Amino acid sequence: MLDSSLVAQLPTTAIAAGGNPLFSEVFLAGASIALASVVATVFVGILVRGNYDDLEASFFEAQEDSLEESREKDSRAENTDAARDFFGDSNVREATPPPTPTVPSESGEK
């Protein structure tokens, strides 16, 4: 009733159940490895989802700390000699007017 072309088209689970015992053992080992990896992935996913808010908060806190450190580093870098040599004086100061020369009066008063 079963010819070879029909057996070739059967799924591997049907062949593993009634076929070669060595093939059955290898198939079951592969299936158990695949099932274990799926279970482990789901388990880790549940753990991460449960602590996602904490992970997100710690990530943003570390990002803000890094940004603050880089801003402090940049503010210290503005006063370096290399920046002053390249850009000129980067610290802008209000210019003081030059002193007005005193002109002696012609009447002889000082």
Quick recap:
The protein is an all-alpha fold and 110 residues long. Helix content is 68%, strand content 0%. The protein has a domain at 12-77.
Give an overview of the whole structure.
This protein has a domain at about 10-75. It has 5 helices and no strands. It has helices at about 5-10, 10-20, 20-50, 50-75, 80-85. The longest helix has 30 residues, at about 20-50. The N and C termini lie far apart (about 135 Å). About 0% of the residues are buried.
Q: Characterize the largest beta sheet: strand count, sense, and whether it forms a barrel.
A: none
In DSSP terms, counting alpha (H) and pi (I) runs of 4 or more, how many helices?
5
The Rg value, from CA coordinates, equals 41 Å
Determine the strand fraction and express it as a percent band.
under 5%
- Gap between N and C termini: 136 Å
- Residue ranges: pLDDT <50 for 5 or more in a row? none
Helical residues, percent:
55-70%
Task: Tell me which oligomeric state these chains represent.
Answer: single chain
Category by helix and strand content: mainly alpha
Please tally the β strands and state the result: 0
> Mean pLDDT score, rounded?
76
